[in-house]
Amino acid sequence: MLAVMTGAFGAHGLRRVLDGYHLGIFETAVRYQMYHALALSIVGVIAAVPEFSRRWLMLATIAFVLGIALFSGSLYLLALSGIGWLGAITPFGGIALILGWLALIVVMLKRES
Predict the structure, then answer these.
(1) For the segment 12-26, what is each residue's pLDDT rounded down to a tens digit?
(2) Spatial contact of 43 and 64, defined as CB atoms under 8 Å apart
(3) For the chain, domain boundaries
(4) DSSP string, the chain
(5) What is the pLDDT of residue 4?
(6) 84-99 residue pLDDT tens
(7) What is the pLDDT of residue 55?
(8) Would you say residue 113 has pLDDT above 60?
(9) How many CB atoms neighbour CB 21 within 10 A?
(10) What is the C-alpha to C-alpha distance for residues 41 and 79, in angstroms, rounded to an integer?
(11) Is the Cβ–Cβ distance between 83 and 22 less than 8 Å?
(12) 25: CB partners within 8 A, 6+ apart
């Protein structure tokens, strides 16, 4: 829901305020937020199956949430403020998102007995 609302705000409220470069940054943040909100939904569905590792599911959840906050959050702030050093935070969010996907892969491969 937040990704849709933020995307609508960017498409309708910021189109006249931001230049093409910063609007593109904003759109990238929305896109990655949406992808990983869906990933969190997948984690929630998988969590209903008892034989999947709770520890790895929790790690995936934390990594996705942290990744969304750092990756999309830093891009939102960069796009809206123009403060360039905020882009230095974005790769840490990307690493967290990658770790979330790796944890989700481990969940699928490693079942508890």
Answers:
(1) 878 888 888 999 999
(2) yes
(3) 2-109
(4) -HHHHHHHIIIIISTTTS-HHHHHHHHHHHHHHHHHHHHHHHHHHHTTSTTB-HHHHHHHHHHHHHHIIIIIHHHHHHHHH--GGGGGTHHHHHHHHHHHHHHHHHHHH-B--
(5) 87
(6) 899 999 999 999 999 9
(7) 93
(8) no
(9) 10
(10) 27
(11) no
(12) 75, 78, 79
Q: Which two tokens stand for residue 55?
A: 């520890």
User: In the structure encoding, which two tokens stand for residue 102, read together?
Assistant: 């790796």
In angstroms, the CA 27 to CA 99 distance is 23
Amino acid at position 88, single letter: A
* Gap between the terminal Cα atoms of the chain: 36
What digits encode the pLDDT tens for the residues 34-83?
A: 999 999 999 999 999 988 989 999 999 999 999 999 999 999 999 999 89
